[in-house]
Amino acid sequence: MIVAQRLILPLILLSVGFLSGCQTLQNIDKGLYDVAESITETDRVTGQRTLSAADRSVQIQQGNAAVEQLLADEEKAGRKINSALDRKQYQRLVSIFDRIHQVSHLSQERWQPVLIDRDSFNAFTTGGTYIVVHRGLMQQLNNDEVAVVIGHEIAHTVANHAGERQTTRQISLLASSAARKQGYQAAYTHELEREADRIGVLYAALAGYDPYAATGIWQRQYQQEGNARSLFAHDHPVNAERAAETKVLADRVKQYYQPGSINPNAAALRDNNSLWQKHESRDQQMAGEGGGVSAILSTALGAYVGHQQAKQEAVRQSQYAQFVQAVESYMKLEQQRRVSDQSWITRWRYSGNLPLKGVVMGFLAQDSAGTTHRYVAHQPGIVRPGQRFELTFETSDGTTLKQIEQMKVRYYVDDAMPAQ
Length: 420
Known about the structure:
alpha+beta, 51% helix
């Protein structure tokens, strides 16, 4: 952030002035401390200051109001929730949630899991004390997989991502033109998602659930859906990258995993572990004695680091999108033939000069209702310049080729990497 850069030198000079014991400087420092208190909170994971304009009580009030409105809408629509919807899945959800919640940084709060009637693969929190889970997700995942998803969602609230994103966005929009770009905002959220993955995988291990379950989820999603990262700036890590990153995380926390039971040292390990060490340095200096300068400086530096990480991620995404688009210009569809009512074979010729690996071709079809159907096909091995290759597409959602003929369709390159 430009704001951070402009603050650092004056604050360093100001801190030197405290050696003289000047009353004016002490008063200024107290004012700075009050400002820091009003726009920051202590990160529950790292112990460092992070930007946030709302305290926890306000977050709970606002977050719970959003979920309670959702539940009122469900009741109004005649849709059941929780055990009335599916007793077996709700009991399973509560059991898994309880163990994850016990090892979390918010274990002292009274939370409530909610099961709603949706077939989709989704779960979410709103910053309060509810976690909402779609029945479709419970039906698709085993217990270990549900656990890492719940851990990830609780982590968003633990790390105050909603408040941090809102406060940082407001300040960034004033301070930096880069932050006003859509790609930057997506990249900033992308980095928060990566942090939630780190916390969630640790929670799963501490609660006695297999930390490698996250990798299984994203490997499966990659096979079924590809990445789709060439289509837009993405605010979540793409499936292949997420599978690889959660594998690394699981490797580092597997030492804490005791299958089926909570690690007896979970309370200590959630603060100090192989992924992070919590810093207890926020209030070592008092207001009026350098604490204000320290608080503002640490906040500014933290915000600056986060800003730079988001900028770098936005650049990386943009560069990769350009690369995939260039690859797509060298892919020519030469033939397609029907295999069954729900599958077809395509033949492609690659005319680029760079050998490729990990090639995934995608197919988009949009029906008259505006619903998008997406299918992918993976090409194993290396695709060399001038090579022809065949890929089979299948409609896993039951859509027939006759129906697809009535839709708007297009092929695209979903993923590819240089083979060199």
